[in-house]
Amino acid sequence: MTVTALPAGTAVPRTSAVAVRLCCVGALALFGALQWATLARPSVAGPMVASVVLAAVAAGVIAQARRRLVVVAVSLALVPLGLLVAGASVGDLLPEGWGGLIAAIRDGLAALPGFRIPYAGGDEAVLLVVQAGGILLIGIAFVAAAALPRRGRLVAVGALVVLYGVPATQTSASSPYLRGAVFAVLIGAVVWGEGLARRGGAVEAPVAALVLGLGVIAGIALGPGLDSARPWVNWDRLVESISTGDTERFSWDHRYGPLDWPRDGRVVLRVKARQSAYWKATNLDGFDGLRWVHGGLRPDQGLRSLGGADVPTRPQWEQRIRVQLAGIRTDQVIGAGSTLALDRLRLTPLSVGSPGTWAVVGQLHRGDAYTARVYVPRPSPDQLARAGTAYPDVMELYRSVHLPSARRDPTRDTEMVFRPFGSHRPPIALGPTATIAEAGDRVLGASPYGRAYALARRLAAGAGTPYEFARRVEAYLNSERFRYEENVPRRAVPLDAFLFRDRLGYCQQFSGAMALLLRMGGVPARVAAGFSPGSLDPTRGEYIVRDVDAHSWVEAYFPHYGWITFDPTPAIAPARAQSAFDPSAAGRPGPAADGALGDRLSDPKGGARAVGAPDHASFPVALVVAALAGVGLLVAIALIAARRLRRPPPRPVDPRLAELERALRRSGRRPDAGMTLRRLERAFEAEPDAVGYLRALREARYGFETTQPTRVQRRGLRRALAAGWQYTGGVRALWALPPSVWRRS
Q1: How far, rounded to the nearest angstrom, does the alpha carbon of residue 82 sit from its chain's CA centroid?
Q2: Confidence label for 386 from pLDDT (cuts 50, 70 and 90)
Q3: Of 170, 422, 478, 739, which one has the fewest beta carbons inside 10 Å?
Q4: Does any domain span residue 190?
Q5: How far apart, in whole angstroms, are the C-alpha atoms of residue 250 and residue 332?
């Protein structure tokens, strides 16, 4: 009998070991597939689960055949089968359909940076690529696990970590800490399950379970502290300090050339709010004759005189939001509507521009977070229709446009001030030296904006109230006359060309044209810039805002309420395509997402919870899960201890033989009832020093000799105990038989 005749535990057949390996991989693959299915809405769980079954069958064939040709053939067969499961048709897989299939995959890959996760659109090419990506990872994991017995587990774990990790970082599911714990346990099963099965797991399984259980409990308990409003370790700030090339900057002034904003689909903001809104960075208050710019009001009545631009707020339209910056750097403090107050901001905020907008000296960047009290009025259409035209005097600045002189001489520029809505008097022309009230129509008619003024008067003539006029302008720009297009030509007078020549553009053209028409019709208006609401993450109560959500919209002033949001940009624009917020539905019941979120962020007494505060709601759940896991672990330990206590007390034995039995158990070798010292000598005959150690014990036990085992013989037995273990044998043998010399008992 050789050393291998005393295996580390009870060995299992190779077929059973492979089955254990594939079962562990299958469990992890199924868990990751269900997570991957959340990348689309509605979920694509059916095809993902089917792909796990298909890949498991293929892995079983590979494991049974154990031939390279079979591995190659099955792997190649998985490609068309996976495409069928992902949504491709049989015709696409035939040679005549390859061109269309390749084009669809190419289009889907090209659209990946621009679509929002979870994808709720109907583009079949995008859905095909999303599902095929997950199916490819599943196939790699199963083929590697079946074809590469040793290294295959690491390849499988790597592929399945990606399968779970990508959607886990892009979407948020319920009970994230519990899901993470399950994920960790499944990874442990893939890494150690087969090894424990091969050796019986008599000693290793409890130790591995204890270590893994303690790690999972620690993760559940510490996770909320790492994911709170003020985390113990700010990973975003750490990433920002290491790499500054992955953040973006936006220029909010209008340019009207081809769109050059970043379009990578990168997350730039996370906003926790009770209701969705447009997240504002700045107001473009002035029109310089060609474009809308920050500031730009008349020098004699600039931004310092705008104290009356806002009305007293109403509590029902106030809310506290929490903004966390991700892939963006900015000196503008991003809020919503009118930002009334800021808290927990790293840099000192300064009120700049028109009331309700703020900036900092320096830069806000990834990892910065703050809370803001914002006012976003949502009156009903009837309330807006009855708002009237009793504008504060300062609103005159928001009914004016700048007309540059024909010779581009600033000293001869003209400022046009339009009468309030409903007045039939001509606009006032403020020249370089005097006011020419009666020449307003003539001066404006001779300018490049004569046609725009005529259009504004025509739209206003059919409206009875400023609100109706605003909706008519919005509907006019949203009609079939205009088309959304990001690659637009450059024109000398951009907005005139947009309205009457090209009739195509993106959010800057649409919002700039609407604000211009509103001012010409006598309604105070301005352009706002920032981001559309983004996509709602209902599990965390956050709006995920990406760079594709960068946007420009219009705000019109209504007495008693303040600045109301309008958005004339077509709904097909990326910033609006998947938004649940309709700014034109002012005062109407909000979308379902808003209502559900508002209910959830309210306390039982009906008061709104301060959503800008740290979210402690996840702590009780995590603690309960950790407590249950801890109780289960303690119960298991207690049961093991009870079994040992119920055993009859052992008979007195020689301490040297007791140590030998303990060493055999610790090294994974459980001696049976009929094992004798002489049989052990035959089992370890390949190691003479180990045989000498055992012979010395046997002779001393039966009184033949009194010689004690030497240190050399003890080391020889330790080498014999280490045999059969690939990596951990030395450590295990040292633990089983420490390097101490026998003493006489």
Answers
A1: 27
A2: very high
A3: 739
A4: no
A5: 10
Q: Do residues 503 and 482 touch, judged by C-beta distance below 8 A?
A: yes
Which tokens in the block code for residue 210?
A: 């204890």
Is the four-CA dihedral 698, 701, 704, 709 of positive or negative sign? Answer: positive
Structure tokens at 294: 């920050």
Query: What tokens were used for 732?
Result: 């295990």
**Sign of torsion over alpha carbons 304, 310, 312, 313:** negative
**Matching residue, tokens 């008061």:** 607
Tokens of 677: 């010292």
In a shared domain, residues 430 and 561: yes
- Residue 106 to residue 100: CA distance in whole angstroms: 10
- Answer for the pair 33, 49: CB distance below 8 angstroms, yes or no: yes
Between 490 and 538, name the one with better pLDDT: 490
Integer Cα distance of 724 and 720 in angstroms = 9
159 lies in the same domain as 301:
no
Q: Are residues 563 and 461 in the same domain?
A: yes
Last residue of a domain, one of 122, 155, 175: 175
With a cut of 60, say whether residue 66 has pLDDT above it: yes
Residue-number span of the structural domain to which 44 is assigned: 3-175
What's the rounded Cα separation, in Å, for the pair 646 and 655? 22
Tell me the backbone φ, ψ of residue 4, rounded to 5 degrees. Answer: -65, -15
Residue 517 has pLDDT above 90, yes or no: yes
**Is it true that the peptide bond before 589 is cis, omega within 30 degrees of 0?**
no
Domain count of the fold of the chain: 3
Which tokens go with 462?
Answer: 């059919």
Half-sphere exposure of 368 (CA within 13 A, CB side): 23
Question: What pLDDT digit, counting tens, does each position of 289-330 carry?
Answer: 888 988 766 555 555 555 555 566 788 999 999 998 887 888
Among residues 612, 614, 616, the alpha carbon closest in space to that of 335 is found at 612
Lowest model confidence (mean pLDDT) among 180-189, 403-412, 459-468, 582-591: 582-591
- Kindly state whether residue 637 falls inside one of the protein's structural domains: no
Residue 210's alpha-carbon distances to 177, 215, 456, 626, 728, in angstroms, are 19, 9, 75, 14, 18
435 has which bridge partners? 430
Q: What is the DSSP string of 471-509?
A: HHHHHHHTSTT-EE-SS----SSHHHHIIIII-EE-HHH
Closest CA to 712 of 730, 736, 739, 744: 739
**Nearest-angstrom CA–CA distance, 374 and 382:** 24
Torsion-angle region of residue 87: left (phi > 0), alpha (psi -120 to 50) or beta?
left
CA–CA distances in Å: residue 616 to residues 39, 353, 455, 544, 619: 27, 36, 54, 20, 6
3-state secondary structure of 400: strand
**How many residues in the chain?**
745
Measured between alpha carbons, how far is residue 129 from residues 36, 124, 722 in Å?
12, 9, 50
For 580-610, letters b (16+ CB in 10 Å) and e give: bbebbebbeebbebbeebbeebeeeeeeeeb
634 domain-assigned: no
Do residues 685 and 546 share a domain? Answer: no
Q: CA-to-CA distance for 542 and 270, rounded, in angstroms?
A: 6
How far apart are the C-alpha atoms of 156 and 135, rounded to whole Å?
Answer: 13
Whether residues 583 and 441 fall in one domain: yes
pLDDT above 70 as % of the chain: 68
pLDDT range class, residue 335, cuts 50, 70, 90: very high
Q: Phi/psi of residue 240, each to 5°?
A: -65, -40
DSSP string, 161-204: HHHHHHHHHHS--SSHHHHHHHHHHHHHHHHHHHHHHHTTTTTH
